[in-house]
Structures are given as C-alpha cells and as structure tokens.
Amino acid sequence: MSEFDYDLFVIGGGSGGVRAARVAAGEAGAKVALAEEDRYGGTCVIRGCVPKKLMVFASEYASAAKEARAYGWDMADGDFHWDRFKEKLETELDRLEGVYRKLLKGSGVETFDARATLKDAHTVALSTGEVKTAKHILIATGGRPVRPDLPNAHLGMVSDDIFHLDALPKRVLIVGGGYIACEFACILNGLGVEVTQYYRGAQILRGFDEEARGLIAESMAQRGVDLHVGTDIVDMHCEEDEDGLTAPVEVTQYGAKGVEEVREVGKPIRVKATNGKTREFDAVFFATGRRPNSDELGLEALGIEIGRKGEIKVDGYSQTAVPSVYAIGDVTDRVNLTPVAIREGMAFVETVFKGNPTEVDHDLIPSAVFTQPELGTVGLSEEAARDQEEIEVYSTSFRPMQTAFAEGEGRVLMKLIVSKATRKVLGCHIVSPGAGELIQMVGIAVKMGATKEDFDRTVAVHPTMSEELVTMRNPVRTA
Ligand code: FAD
Questions:
Q1: Does the CB atom of residue 111 touch ligand 1 within 6 A?
Q2: What is the distance of C-alpha 329 from the center of its chain?
Q3: Bridging pattern class, strands 32-35 and 110-112
Q4: Low-confidence residues of the chain, pLDDT below 50?
Q5: CATH superfamily for domain 153-286
Q6: Which of 6, 180, 274, 446 has the fewest beta carbons closer than 10 A?
Q7: Could you list the active site residues?
Q8: Best CATH choice for the domain 6-143+291-353 from the list 3.30.565.10, 3.50.50.60, 3.90.105.10, 3.40.50.150
Q9: How far does the centroid of ligand 1 lie from the alpha carbon of residue 445, in Å?
Q10: Is 169 touching ligand 1 by the criterion CB < 6 Å?
C-alpha cells in the first residue's frame, strides 16, 4: 500500500496535463488524479488553437465567391452570420470537451472539477475542501492573456473574450504584433470587421524571418487591415466627462472567467495613439502578451523558483527545485505551443514512470502563423543564422497560379537558409496558403539534417507552389 493517495496528481486539464495524466495512467499503470478548475481541453481546445482555426476557416470564405466567379462560376457574395457560426462553434467545443473527459476516464484517471493549490511537496488542496496526497505532482496550469498597464485598459478585451462576443464589432482596434494579434486581424478582417492594428515595434511578428514578416505585413494591408507599426495607445476612454476623460459606466461580462469588466455596451471607445491621432472603435482587442498561471498556487512557500515573467523554473526533465514537483507547458514559458506541452508531458511520464529519463528536445520546432497568407517556419531566420555562421539564402516570391488566374494580388514566399560550411538547411520559411501544412513535412527533413543538395535531388511535384523549395538553383545572397 502506498503512503500516498495517488502516484501522480496533475493540476490543469489542458494539452500538457491531460496527455501526461492519460499516458501515466493508461500506459504506465500509475494511479492518477487530475484537477481542472474550468473546462477540460484548456487553452488550445476552449480558447486557443481550435476555436481560432475554425474562425480562420470561416474567414477564408470571404474571397471564395469572388475567386469562384473568376473561375467561371455564377456565385454571389454572401453575408457572414456570427450567431450561426458561434452556435456551431460552441457545440463543437462542448463535443471536444466531452472527448477530453472521456479520454481521461477511459485511461482510469480520477478527475476533480476544482481549483488546486499545493500545500506541501506531496499534498494538493482542492477548492472543494478535499485534500489529496501524491508521490509526484505535475503542474500544467498554462497561461492567461494580460492587458497592458494602461489607464482604462479594462475597456479592451483579450483573446479569451473573442469567442464569447454576442455580435462582431463594426470597427475593432487590435493592439499587438505577435502571432495572436496578426491572426485575429486577418480573421476579423475576413469576417467583414473594419480592422485597425497598432503595434509599437518596427514590424509585426518579431522573431520570425524578416522577409516573411514584411510579406505578411504587406499582404495584410493589401487585404484591408489598417496596420500601423511604431504606434501604441496613449489613452483610451469610453464616455467623455467635462475634462475629456472618462468614467466607465456599465458592467458587462466579457466572457473571460473571473473578469468583471466595465464597458458600456454599444458605446464607442475613443483611442488616442502615439501618432497623435484620436480614433473611435467599437472594440479594442489587446493581444499584448500572456502570463504563466503560477500565482496563488503556493509555490514560493515550497521553495519552487518562479522567474521574472511568472514562469516556473524547471530543468531539462521538467523537474522543479522540489524533487516531487514537476511543471510542463505554458506555465514554464519555454516554447508556448500545444504540441510542445504534449511532448513535455510525454517526456515527464517517460522520465518518472517508465524509468527512461528523457529531456525535451526544443530544437527545430516547426510552427505556423495562421494569417492570410499563412506563415510556416522551421529553424533559424536569415537574421539569426547570419549572426551564427556564413550562410547562403535561397528565396523566391511569386504570385501563385490559383491567385494569378483569378487576378488576385497575393504573393507567396519560399525561402531556405543554408549553412555554407555544412550545407545543412538551417531554416525554411514559407508564406503561402496552406504553409502550416507544408512546413510540417519540411520540418522532418530539416530535423533529419537535410542539406541543400538533399533538397535539390528531390524531384519537384508539379505544378505546386512548394516545388520551388527543390528547384532554387542559385542563392539570392550570401552573408
Ligand atoms: P493550457 O492548455 O492553458 O491548460 C491549463 C489548464 O489548467 C487550463 O484548463 C486551466 O483552466 C487549468 N488551471 C489553471 N490553474 C489551475 C488550478 N490552480 N487548478 C486547476 N486547474 C487549473 N498553440 C499551437 O500550437 N498552435 C496554435 O495555433 C495556437 N494558437 C493559439 C491561439 C490562441 C488565441 C492562444 C491563446 C494560444 C494558442 N496556442 C497555440 C498556444 C496553446 O494553446 C498553448 O501552448 C497550450 O494550450 C498550452 O497547454 P498547457 O497544457 O500548458 O496549458
């Protein structure tokens, strides 16, 4: 008989937590419990990747009728009905949450619909009043969006709120230049919302390849996003009082759990920007960053180290300074993506329950930005690679056949960064429709250490956009 109630107690039923719990119980035969305070599936399923991608799909139909007409179809432009889409979206998310619950149950994981905190290195206290002990505790509590430190920032919404809107705003200001900001700018633009985007930096999508960032910014502007870089909010308010500033008025629940925000429904928000202009918007959407959910878990009292951004400090095996406590996923702020949280969960189970110490490999992770067009990327940007070693850059940008035939304007980019010394492909950047699908495959080759010559000896698939990846003969520059 174990001295503990469980072998493993997982806090958080999102991507990482659910996978770790299922595999530990189902494959390693551990006695596992999991606590989730909100909805099973976590950020990815309930308020991230999944609903967002469904919104991307919805928004992409905007140009379908026009393109179909160019191809000879009789097709009239139609209107988008948010209420119809939202109803279907909610049904789908309910279904997926049910699947997650079922998977946990099927693996023998005991679940608690409760908030959990740590009492000591082996004890978890639940908001239901129950107290449970476990040999190991896994923290997989994810992260949350944060508003900037700005007067009246509560008037704006964050990504969690978008999926709960009763109606789409007519005019929205999106603040931020990261992937979530850019994706929602494209989504809302596609759905017919008048989108303005302010980003304080010099170019959107910081950290990605510069040529790719430039092309996406250009495409977004071409499609109607009013993008202003080098621009931030100075002041925002809802209703003018005598001195021109505000007193927010009525209470509206924007949907985000625990957030009671003040905003008069239907009243425009007046926003003064660093460019000196004041404009009105029906909604302001802050996509200005996320923070790990590490507070109020009782971690510091236990001696678990928390970093400057609120991230739980762990070693390569996801172990904290307290040996029985591990942490995975966004709460550790390593690479904040669903498949990475899942990998970290699997590596944790290998290490702790299967006697096979496994460090998580965070190198060469392919990823996508679901803008229109999409960005698929793996490895180093041109800028990062040339700081590291001598490189050759192979790059081509062109109007794809499908768009060109329909007299559309969009261009695509296919780009390889190659090491001069080893000939290895250090990075690949694709801006095109379906780039997320393409980069998954390129990611395998790059992870295997493919050289430019390996790409060259692969026969092209014709006619496709990605055939350019194996037919670019001469570098456009060396650095
Ligand atoms: P989460 O999925 O956030 O799960 C944590 C869970 O813990 C939550 O359900 C929360 O309610 C629960 N919890 C927190 N505290 C407690 C507590 N004390 N007790 C009990 N339960 C608790 N990633 C991609 O790979 N591709 C994408 O396209 C993508 N798009 C995204 C779009 C948006 C808008 C956002 C916000 C994120 C997106 N991500 C995407 C990131 C991805 O969603 C996260 O990296 C992933 O969900 C992290 O998983 P996790 O298990 O660490 O945490």
A1: no
A2: 12
A3: parallel
A4: 241-264
A5: FAD/NAD(P)-binding domain (3.50.50.60)
A6: 274
A7: 462
A8: 3.50.50.60
A9: 29
A10: no
